[in-house]
Design brief:
Elements lengths: L6 E4 L2 H5 L3 E6 L9 H16 L4 E6 L4 H12 L3 E7 L8 H8 L3 E5 L1 H4 L5 H10 L3 E3 L7 H17 L4 E6 L3 H10 L4 E6 L6 H9 L10 E4 L12 H14 L8 H13 L8 E6 L5 H7 L5 H4 L2
Parallel strand pairs: 2-10, 3-4, 3-6, 4-5, 7-8, 7-10, 8-9
Antiparallel strand pairs: 1-2
The protein binds pyridoxal-5'-phosphate.
Pyridoxal-5'-phosphate binds next to α2, α3, β7 and α8.
Length: 307
């Protein structure tokens, strides 16, 4: 198996003070367009769609979704059609994320919140597959069993790259965390940072995605105190801290996913969460396409964040 993304060691005065080694697994570098963990999660989904001779893939997402953006490009690359059910109004088709997706051939259907809530409802899914029999349906965020197989490769790559104690990552729908848990077999501490407010729902998602696993996995945890106010919410101060860190390390973390993991990591470090001489790997899940959308919505300053 080929190693798809490098690991880079990073330096910071706090790391020296606490005597810990910090590396970043650079899944943001896997592909210039297809966002890191979405590339991992789509790999076997698209392979399956092609093998089963579907003509396209249908999935669900918000108007700035990294998953939808990645799906559009990946389908184009794999000679598959793509169809997205988007939460929100028609005018979103002009935003930076969807205008690109549409330029790659994606078809977008806009639905209200109530309809969007049905995205995991079996009757609704049956209706969609009757309406679009040639489309393989992938859940929001791409998180299904095919996704776990793709994400597992992160662990196999890291096994070849370095020895480490803890792997940290942002958690949105928990597909990525579940894939890591599946492949790790209780060898490392896997620490997820919830990027949205939740109350046990993500843990349930993990348990559901791993329900058919023969072995029990208890080497993981989801931290719930670092969502910064909710999904895609962050303070000016958070942004400054992420941006400062980006300048220091030369790696760009964005404030919706990887940046929240980073701030959580720094907070844990200051709390003495890690032991001396431990090695921590931060999984950079990508998501940089989202920065343009945040600038467009005036949530980030163009001068500081243009990439
Ligand atoms: C989707 C996404 C995540 C969350 O991954 P899940 O598998 O949904 O938990 C994390 N980081 C980035 C950049 C993403 O786009």
């Amino acid at each position: 198996m080929k190693v798809l993304s490098p690991v880079t060691q990073i330096d910071h005065p706090l790391f020296q003070k606490h005597q810990i080694n910090v590396w970043v697994k650079r899944d943001d570098l896997i592909h210039p367009v297809i966002s890191g963990n979405k590339w991992r999660k789509l790999k076997f989904n698209l392979m399956h769609a092609n093998q089963q001779e579907y003509q396209g893939v249908l999935s669900f997402g918000g108007a700035y979704s990294n998953h939808i953006h990645a799906l559009a490009y990946a389908c184009k690359n794999n000679n598959l059609k793509s169809l997205a059910i988007i939460r929100g109004e028609e005018h979103y088709r002009n935003n930076s994320t969807l205008s690109q997706a549409i330029s790659w051939g994606m078809n977008c259907h806009f639905v209200d919140r109530k309809t969007y809530k049905l995205r995991n409802n079996q009757n609704y899914l049956n209706e969609l597959s009757q309406q679009y029999p040639d489309y393989f349906i992938v859940p929001e965020g791409g998180s299904n069993q095919h996704a776990l197989a793709g994400v597992s490769e992160v662990i196999y790559e890291l096994d070849k790259q370095l020895s480490y104690d803890c792997l940290m990552l942002p958690v949105g729908s928990a597909g990525t965390l579940s894939g890591l848990i599946k492949a790790d077999h209780n060898r490392h501490h896997l620490l997820g940072v919830a990027v949205l407010k939740q109350d046990g729902y993500l843990e349930q998602e993990v348990n559901q995605l791993l329900a058919s696993e023969p072995n029990k996995h208890d080497n993981w945890k989801i931290l719930n105190n670092f969502h910064g106010g909710g999904y895609a919410k962050f303070s000016h101060d958070d942004c400054l801290r992420i941006s400062e860190f980006n300048q220091l390390t030369g790696i760009t973390f964005e404030p919706i996913y990887s940046g929240k993991m980073l701030l959580a990591f720094l907070a844990l470090l200051e709390q003495g969460y890690f032991q001396k001489n431990q090695t921590v790997v931060l999984l950079h899940t990508g998501g940089l396409q989202g920065i343009n959308g945040l600038i467009e919505q005036n949530k980030l300053s163009a001068e500081m964040w243009s990439i």
